Amino acid sequence: MSAPFIPPDIVLLTAPQLLGMMFNWGLWGILTVQVYLYYLFFNDSLRVRALVYTLYFLECVQTALSSADIIHWFSKGWGQLSFLSDPYVNPIDLPMMAGLIAMTVQLYFTWRIWILSASLPLAIFIGAISVAQCVAGFVAGIQALQVGDLTKLSSLLAPKLWLAGAAISDTLIAVAMCYFLYRARQRSLVPHTNYILKRIISLTIETNALSASVAIITLILFIRFPNNTLFICPPYALGKLYSNTLLVIFNNRMVLPNDNGKTASIGLKGLTAANHAHTSDHSSRIQDDGIKITVLRQTDGEPSDMDLDMESQRGVHTMTKRISLDAAPRR
Asked: In this protein, which residues make up the domain named DUF6534 (predicted)?
C-alpha cells in the first residue's frame, strides 16, 4: 500500500491549529488563576460576580470544544489530510463563542463609558457595533459548518464582518474610555485620584489595543492567505484575551504591601483588596533614636479621595496608632 501524498505546505495546515490551541490552553490557565484571585479577595455585587463566573464558564466550554477539535484533527484523523480541513466543531468554539464572549466584555465597557460620559447615543452606537459583530460571528459559524472546508471560507462575508466589528468596537472603547478618564484626571486636584486614573488609562490602552490587534491580524490572514489555516491561530486566543482583560481590570484593585526584604516572597495572604476594610499605612523611621511609628486607619467603607489626600499630607490618623520600638535604644 502506497503512502498518502503529503503536500509541501503541510505545515500551513497543521501548525496554525496546533499553535492556536496551545495559546488557548495557556491563556485559559492564566484566566483560571485570575478568577481564583478574584474569588479570594473580592465580594462585588451579584451582577458583577455573575458576569465574571459566566465568562469563566463560557471559556471552559470553549476550551473543551477546542480540545475536541485538536483530537479530531491530530488523533482521530491521524494521517488523513481530509481531516485537517474539516471544521468539526471549530465554527462553534471560534466565531460563535468568541463573538459572544467579546460582546459580553464590550458591553460591560460600553456601560462604563455611559457612566463616565452620560452620553447615551455614544454608548448605543458602540453597543450596536458589538452586538453586530456577535451576530456576524454566529452567521460565520453557521456558514462554515455548511461549507465543510476550512480552506474554502475566503468568499464568505460574515467572518470579515465579525473580525472588523470586533476591531472597530475595541478601538472605539479604548479611545472613548481614555478620553473620558483623561478628562476626569484633568479636573481632579487629588493626587491619589490622578494616580488611579492614570493606571486605568494605561490598562485600557494596553488591553483593548491587544484584542483589536489580534482581530485585525486575523482579518488580514483570512483575506491574504485563503487556502490554508493561518487565520485560525490568532482567534483561538481572542476570546481569552477579552476575559483576561476584564479580570485584569477587576484584580487591579489588589494592593501588594511594601516588601522591605524581610520576607522572601509575598503569598496570597499578603494581598489586600481595595474593597475590603481599607487600611492606610504611613510609616516614618527616625534614625536617631531607632523608633518606628506605624499609623493605621481602618474604616468600614471606602475612604474618599479627599480623605486619602489629607492623610498623606498630615500623616496623622485618629482611629488607631501602633508604635513599635526597634532594637536600637532610645536616647
From this structure: 166-254
Alpha helices of 118-234 — where are they, by DSSP H? 120-147, 158-187, 191-224
The string of pLDDT tens digits covering residues 155-192 is 889 999 999 999 999 999 989 988 888 888 777 777 77
CA distance 251 to 235: 24
- 274 DSSP assignment: T
Under-70 pLDDT residues of the chain: 1-5, 255-331
Distance between CA 99 and CA 58 in Å, rounded? Answer: 11
Domains in the chain: ranges and CATH:
11-255 (1.20.1070), 277-325 (no CATH)
How far apart, in whole angstroms, are the C-alpha atoms of residue 218 and residue 99?
14
CA–CA dist 168, 178 (Å, integer): 15
pLDDT in tens, 119-130: 899 999 999 999
Taking a C-beta distance cutoff of 8 angstroms, is the pair 165, 136 a contact?
A: yes
Strand partners for 296 = 281, 320
Phi-psi region of 225 (alpha: psi -120 to 50; beta: other; left: phi over 0): beta
Per-residue cell: 70: 485538536
Own/partner long-range contacts of 111-115 (Cβ < 8 Å, ≥24 apart): 112/177, 113/173, 113/176, 113/177, 113/180
127-130 long-range contacts, CB within 8 A, separation 24+: 129/165, 129/168, 129/169, 129/172, 130/102, 130/103, 130/106, 130/165, 130/169
Residue with cell 477539535: 69
